[in-house]
Amino acid sequence: MNSRIVLLGTEQDFFLQLLEMLVPGGARDPALEAEERGETAPPPEAAPFEVWFAYRGTDGLDEIRRLRRIGAYPAIAMIDLAEDPEDALEIAGRLLVDDPRLQVVLVSPNADEVWDVAAEALGHRDQVVVLKRPFDGVEVRELAHVLVQRWTEMDRVLSRTARLVSGETAIVKAGSNPALTPSSGVEVLRDAFRAIHGLVAALSARCELLEPEARAEALQRVSAVSEAVDHLRQVEHLAEPKPVTAKPDEV
What we know:
- By secondary structure, the protein is α/β, with parallel strands linked by helices.
- 57% of the residues lie in helices and 11% in strands.
- It contains nine helices and five strands.
- It has a five-stranded parallel sheet with strand order 2-1-3-4-5, sandwiched between helices.
- The longest helix has 38 residues, at 137-174.
């Protein structure tokens, strides 16, 4: 599971506080401390998260893009809004454009104000959350675990979609010889509808978290989408290969 987190900020306290909360003891060097006491260095412990630091701004963007180039995709970007909120929100927007899987945490002492500004600048996105300072260690770790899981789920959905699209493209290129591809058009359609139903089920589960009045309306809309998808599944039957009836030999 991808547990890579990038901290973007300008203050040393921001980096060190979050590092200590995400990786308890991560701001210390146990090997150096043991050496100073004349003791044997303890074996390294597996950290729950892999934490990287980047200076907020162009350098931070370049660092995250460098990580992506080497295949080290960040799951979470925690961005400090303390000094220049507008610049931080612009960076967040560019990061989300680069990678729609990325989970963005906006860190600010004024959570309510930031939420309104962020919603206006970035839109209402599930990938964007606001974390209030001063930090609570338990809250930070729980949030990180939830967002890592969310990144994993989104990565799975996008990977699945990419495979479906590539499979459909291969079938189109094959033309009259579908045997050249490992999956038929019907199989691609079935996989696509399974993925859609999975997304609808996830939306339905999210609706259960809403207030009663909003929940009823949201569930009604999700139900309508589900019914529309069920009707659309009739396309599968159109794509089913029809048996060829041999014509009797003419006498």
